[in-house]
Amino acid sequence: MTRDLDPSTVVVHAGRPERVPDAPVGESPVFSSTYVAGGDRGYGRFGNDAWTALEETLGQLEGGRGLAFASGMAAAAAIMDLVPVGGRVVAPEHAYSGVLALLDQQTATGRLTVERVNVADTEGVARAVAGADLLWIESPTNPAMEVADIPALAAAGHTAGATVVVDNTFATPLLQQPLRLGADVVMHSATKFIAGHSDVILGAVVTADDELRSAIELRRRSLGAIPGSMDAWLALRGLRTLALRLERAQSNAAFLAERLLQHPKVSRVRYPGLPDDPGHDRAAAQMSGFGAILSVELGGDAAAAQKVCESTELWVHATSLGGVESMLERRRRWPIEVPTIPEDLIRLSVGIEHPDDLWSDLEQALSSST
Length: 370
Ligand SMILES: *Cc1c(COP(=O)(O)O)cnc(C)c1O
Prior knowledge:
Layout (H helix, E strand, L loop, with lengths): L6 H7 L35 H14 L2 E5 L2 H9 L6 E6 L4 H12 L3 E6 L4 H7 L5 E5 L11 H10 L3 E5 L4 H4 L9 E5 L13 E5 L2 H14 L5 H11 L2 H21 L5 E3 L9 H7 L6 E5 L4 H9 L5 E2 L9 E4 L14 E5 L5 H12 L4
Parallel strand pairs: 2-3, 2-4, 4-5, 5-6, 10-11
Antiparallel strand pairs: 1-7, 6-7, 8-9, 9-12, 11-12
Helix pairs in contact: 1-2, 2-9, 3-4, 3-8
The protein binds pyridoxal-5'-phosphate.
Enzyme class: lyase
Keywords: Pyridoxal phosphate, Transferase
GO molecular function: cystathionine gamma-lyase activity; cystathionine gamma-synthase activity; homocysteine desulfhydrase activity; methionine gamma-lyase activity; pyridoxal phosphate binding
């Protein structure tokens, strides 16, 4: 080929079996707990062809080598385990609540110390990262939609000698490649956009650093946080259509963000694609699109926001995101959500339905609140 392939082509073709006569076109799940002695693989906890295909595809997209995990949290836990006992982690004030809860647990047992920062405040993060072992970044953040300056934070983290990790779940490997922006490790909840159909829990790590990769792979083996072959295959099958799904979901999200901004019952729309959003310029500089998640505040109490979530007919009232079906929820309905997330904040994961149908259902649900 005379040109570098576009990521929307790579996502379709990477990680496929070699094209020899009668080879299958795509990888299949392999249901074997062990392998005949004499080869490199040995045992089902050490490798599986379906993982490898998914890992190669994610690796090519992100610019590193992938590792599949049983869940996004399993991937996050394996990365956190790299921090030495008594080590220091700098993490976002707002980020996926499960990751923050994991850090709280590790602080409570004395394993780590954690300093929480606003990832949008580049200078604040640079100050906090001095002496840290690991800088955890999420961008855009779940569900506050703040945007971190990844190149600047990666540089600050490296000056301080910290390993820089980016949770790239919201952006997906198609819209943002943190390794190319200077990060050491990328983590995904592949449960979300990568698998894309709300039918599998899966995680992934990608790094271009072989030493880090071996250390993380060793943890996958020893902590046993391995995905099932069928789940890895489902995620791979979902991933093949990510470019198309995102194209539609993103244009739906942009359309809905504009509509919501005009709606009298909406007091704030958080979406980096809006020109007035505080993260807009940064997101435009480091992402090739603004994604399909947005958050809205209604300016009322929790009950009114809850009523809206319970009044939709098309939008699914459920947690999670990144599926083909649009979903919404009030994040503070979860006791572990960070208290500085407003009580009336609703996170919307925009799917691939027709935008007019999505809007008409939201309008109908908004009119139910007083
Ligand atoms: C869902 C999510 C996770 C956790 O992933 P699981 O696959 O549910 O374990 C981590 N980070 C972000 C940003 C998420 O949305």
